[in-house]
Structure formats: structure tokens, C-alpha cells
Amino acid sequence: MPHATAPRLTRRALVRLGGGLTGLAGLGFLAACGTTPTPQSVGVAPAATPLPPTATTAIQATAPPSPTIVMVPTAQTASAVPGATTMAAPPSPTLPTAPTIASPSVTATMTPPPFNGIPQGRTADGFPFLGNPDAAVTLIDYSDFL
Amino acid sequence: MLTVEPQVIERYVRTGKAKLVFRDVLNHGERSERTSEAAASAGRQGQFWALHAILFAEQPTVEQTPIAQLVPLLRRYAATLPDLDQESFARSMDERATFAAIKAADAEQRKRGITSQPIFEIGTRRLLGLQSVEVIGRAIDEAAKQ
């Protein structure tokens, strides 16, 4: 009965096998790092079609260079920060002046005129009077406080 | 009467020649009503003239304060009167306890032609509009001779 003979591996096959194992190990490492491997770095999968040079150029063209924006104090000039673009602080917005309403504050020690010593009371029909109730003359002031 | 009244009081009321009676004229709607009610509410406690003096002194503020803030302002003025029971004053204002009498007096006065202010009645004379101390004094002197 003839011995079964192990298939002979050619040198090229070993090289391919080694490359495949290396690629699998690389995949595992990259997966552990959370990085999506690019097909080119694996070497097992068929090589992805590289982006044509024109596509790269297009991306670079549409992405504007992001300038470094540095807010500098007004006393610091832009030249103090190399490569910085000075963004001037916007002027404080001028809000319309609110109409002034008379302050309803009241002085705590508001002192009325010196009516002290002058008789006060109400007339027979209920109106307030000031002065001698028996004065010869009555002065009626029809008014209001406005 | 804002500037004339103190002089009239000193010359003719304090000296006993005349008795000054104050009667409200309601020509400025709710603002007139509420200030008159405040003075009358203070008057129920014998403090009419004290608050009367404050209201005249603070006339510009009373005129310019928004109507919704008027009663709180009047309460703060009243609070400067040390002898005024604030709780009773506030209750009088809240209940508008003096309003009916003030309105009735104003209605009666209008039937007699009291439709503007100030108007002064001195003896048998009626003076319309602002008057000088001298004019009021002459009218008092003439009334005293009658």
C-alpha cells in the first residue's frame, strides 16, 4: 500500500502562505487598535485601486487651508504670533437706549413741609382742611396732584 | 399751587387769617383717582396733609410712573410717614374705600362748573387757573372785609 505523501510545498507557495499569515496578524492588530486597515497594508486581499492622482488633487483643492486664528488682546499685535491671523474683537454692539422711566424710588426720610402746629381736620362735608377752623375766610383749592 | 401753596399757607393759613380746604378734581383718569384715594386714605388717619405735601413735591414722578406701578409708588410714599398705619392704608387702597366719595364730590363740583384745575374759591370769588400769591392774598383780604 503506498504511503500517502504530503503534498510538497513549493517555495513560492510558502512565501505566499507567510505573507498571508502576516497579513492576518496585521488585521488583528489593527482591529485591536480600532483602525480600519487599508487593503494595501494587508497584502492578502486584492489590492484596492488607488485613488487616481486627480481625485487627490480635487480634495486638496476644495478644502481651503485653515488659517490659524488666534484671538489676541488688543494690546498684542498680530506680529507677536507668527502665522496668526488676527481677528479683531468685534465692537461692542450698541443697544438702543431704553426710555428712561422715572425712578419710583422713595427717599426713606421724606420730610413733608412744616405743617406742624397748624390745625388740621375735616370740614362738615368731609373735606380736609388746614388752618384755624374758625378762620374768617375759607380758601377752597380745587385741584389734583398732577 | 405747587409753588404758591406753601407761601399761602405760611402767610395766610398759619397766621389764622384763612382756612385752606382741598377738594379733588379728577381730570387725569385713573392717575387722578388713585393719587386722590391715597391722600384720602392717609386722611382717614389724620395724615392727609402730610401725604398731600409729598405728592405735590413728587409730582413729576407721580405723573411719569407707569399706571401699573402707581399704587406701589403711593404705598412707598405713605411708608415714609412714621405715624401712618401702613396696613390700614394698604387695605384702604386695595378696597378703594374712599373712591366713591371722591367720585361723588367730583361729580357734584362739575355741576357747579369745576371742570379744570386749579380753581380757587375765596369767599364769593372764584379764580380760575394758577394764581400768584399776591392775587390770592388780595382775594383773602377782600373776603375778610365782607
List the helices and strands and how they pair.
The complex is a heterodimer of chains A (146) and B (146).
Chain A (H helix, E strand, L loop, with lengths): L10 H23 L5 H4 L10 H10 L6 E2 L14 E2 L33 E3 L5 E3 L6 E7 L3
Parallel strand pairs in A: 1-2
Antiparallel strand pairs in A: 3-4
Chain B lengths: L3 H10 L4 E7 L4 H15 L4 H10 L1 H6 L5 H10 L6 H10 L3 H13 L7 E4 L2 E4 L4 H13 L1
Helix pairs in contact in B: 1-8, 2-3, 2-5, 5-6
Which residues of chain B form runs of ≥5 with pLDDT under 50? Answer: none
Write down the overall geometry of chain A. rod-shaped
Mean pLDDT of chain A: 56
Assign the structural class of chain A, choosing from mainly alpha, mainly beta, alpha/beta, alpha+beta, or little secondary structure.
alpha+beta
- Uncertain stretches of 5 or more adjacent residues of chain A: 1-10, 23-89, 98-103
Strand order across the largest sheet of chain B: 2-3
Number of strands of chain B: 3
Share of helical residues of chain A? 25-40%
Radius of gyration of chain A: 49 Å
Measured distance between first and last alpha carbons of chain A: 132 Å
Helix-strand pattern of chain B: HEHHHHHHEEH
Query: What distance separates the N and C termini of chain B?
Result: 25 Å
For the largest beta-sheet of chain B, the strand count, sense and barrel status come to: 2 strands, antiparallel
Write out the strand line-up for the largest beta sheet of chain A, numbering strands in chain order.
1-2
Give a description of the structure.
The complex is a heterodimer of chains A (146) and B (146). Chain A is an alpha+beta fold and 146 residues long. Helices cover 25% and strands 12% of the residues of chain A. Chain A is built from three helices and five strands. In chain A, strand 3 (120-122) and strand 4 form a beta hairpin. The termini of chain A are far apart. The model of chain A is unreliable at 1-10, 23-89 and 98-103 (pLDDT under 50). Chain B contains eight helices and three strands. Chain B is globular, with a radius of gyration of 16 Å. The model of chain B has no long low-confidence stretch (mean pLDDT 96). Chain B has 146 residues and is mainly alpha-helical. In chain B, helix 1 (4-13) packs parallel to helix 8 and helix 2 packs parallel to helix 5 (70-79). The longest helix of chain B is centred in the first third of the chain and has 15 residues, at 29-43. In chain B, a hairpin with a 2-residue loop joins strand 2 (119-122) and strand 3 (125-128). A two-stranded antiparallel sheet of chain B has the order 2-3. Chains A and B meet through strand 4 and strand 5 of A and helix 1, strand 1, helix 2, helix 3 and helix 4 of B. Strand 4 of chain A pairs antiparallel with strand 1 of chain B.
